Amino acid sequence: MNQIELRNASFQYPNGFLANDDLNLIVKRGERVAIVGQNGAGKTTAVKMMNGLHKPCKGDVLVEGRNTKDYTTAQIARQVGYVFQNPDDQIFNQTVYAEIAYMPKYYKMAEKEVDKRVKEVAELLEIETYLKMNPFEIPYVTRKFVTIAAILATKPQYIILDEPTAGQDLTGIKVLTRVLEELEKIEIGVVTITHDMEFAANNFERVVAMANKKIIKDGNVRDIFSDDDILRQSKIKRPGIGQIADSIGLGKDILNAREFVKRYKEVTAP
Ligand SMILES: Nc1ncnc2c1ncn2[C@@H]1O[C@H](COP(=O)(O)OP(=O)(O)OP(=O)(O)O)[C@@H](O)[C@H]1O
Known about the structure:
The protein is built from eleven helices and ten strands. The protein has helices at about 45-50, 75-80, 95-105, 110-125, 140-150, 170-185, 195-205, 220-225, 230-235, 240-245, 255-270, and strands at about 5-10, 20-30, 30-35, 60-65, 65, 80-85, 160, 190-195, 205-210, 215-220. The strands form two sheets. A six-stranded mixed β-sheet has the order 6-7-8-3-9-10, sandwiched between helices.
């Protein structure tokens, strides 16, 4: 039961547009899943069904056995935290500390516990030095970490990250990689929407490809990036190094530089 399940779930916007058509997907606690696919494929709509922001018009979404139709969005969002793509859609407090402390306080946690949580998540996201600052005075990419910290401070069972690497440099991506590892250790399920195929290839074993309202493949990252048909349908490209490997005949299954070098040595060995 420690899972989120989309069971034949469809979603239609009030204007009648069907954005998700019959999705089936299970994400377990402690698991990491990347959702990829062209703009408008329905990724954001699908994750909003997972945290109760959208209720399916057909089928069901079960969060740890609770049907989202029977609970308020606030109740489900406490289990499944959603980090917005744009941090400025989420942040509204005057200091980074207040932003992170807001939801734990709202949940009426003791002040000492709130303080402990704020410091723990700030350390995890490497934003301790910003705690007293106004979130809008710090760089955009750091603001994104503030929003991740704010959700983690509520101790959700799952967290949804919408485009976490957008605008991040290598240092930021390293922090995110470490955060994903830490979340796995403490059994928090992570669902990440990403257009960053390097990030997906390096950090996720399981990838869900979406196209035209549907999940077209849910599988191992290597299988997805090796499959030309899936890449074409979902309009995604393999990671850059994989594209080079494919173009020079080293194979379609290369995910990173280490694998590229190994394969290159194998094929060029006398
Ligand atoms: N509020 C809305 N009302 C009507 N249609 C909407 C609404 N929000 C999104 N859509 C449409 O639903 C479809 C799926 O949108 P969604 O945001 O889920 O796609 P996505 O795969 O997350 O795209 P992106 O990668 O661009 O974020 C799109 O065609 C979009 O225009």
